[in-house]
Write a structure and sequence with these properties.
Layout: H1 4-9, E1 17-20, E2 24-28, E3 38-42, H2 54-75, E4 79-83, E5 99-104, H3 125-138
Antiparallel strand pairs: 1-2, 2-3, 3-5, 4-5
The chain binds adenosine monophosphate.
Length: 139
């Protein structure tokens, strides 16, 4: 069964579409965290960021890059939080890659992206070195 976002792409359910090109589309979030909260998605359905092919990933970033200042200007925002919930355990509810562009305003009561994680780990230098080595080895 296709995701709710694929149904938006297909025009089967309504959405406030604010930008569209060959491979990507942007529309307002139906339950906005702030005025102008916008989602940018690839038109084709991929569940996680690492499922997105390189060329589509480049297109997706290009649309995010294009839309951030457009959204900020439209709602006179001071800043934006731009983020992906990548996987269910990270809070992803719709299994179709989407980038949240959330306008931010001075004194809006929100927090930084650091606020999304749970308890912070207490890692010593050796552990950090090991983690960095493991990541670098696969990069
Ligand atoms: P996430 O938790 O990252 O998967 O976010 C999914 C987002 O999609 C939420 O912010 C929802 O408000 C939003 N959403 C769900 N259904 C729709 C819809 N039909 N149109 C627009 N936004 C939607």
């Amino acid at each position: 069964m296709s995701t709710i976002f694929s149904q938006i792409v297909a025009g089967e359910i309504p959405a406030r579409i604010v930008y569209e090109d060959e491979t990507t589309i942007a529309f307002l979030d139906a339950n906005p965290l702030a005025p102008g909260h916008t989602l940018v998605i690839p038109k084709d359905e991929y569940e996680r960021l690492n499922d997105v092919p390189d060329d589509v990933a480049a297109d997706l970033y290009e649309t995010v890059h294009h839309m951030v200042p457009v959204v900020e200007d439209a709602v006179d925002a001071d800043a934006t939080t731009v983020a992906f919930n990548n996987g269910e355990e990270a809070g992803q509810e719709v299994p179709h890659v989407h980038c949240h562009i959330v306008p931010r305003f001075e004194g809006d009561g929100g927090g930084p992206i650091h606020a999304v994680a749970g308890d912070r780990p207490d890692l010593d230098d050796d552990e950090l070195d090991d983690i960095a080595a493991d990541i670098e080895a696969s990069a």
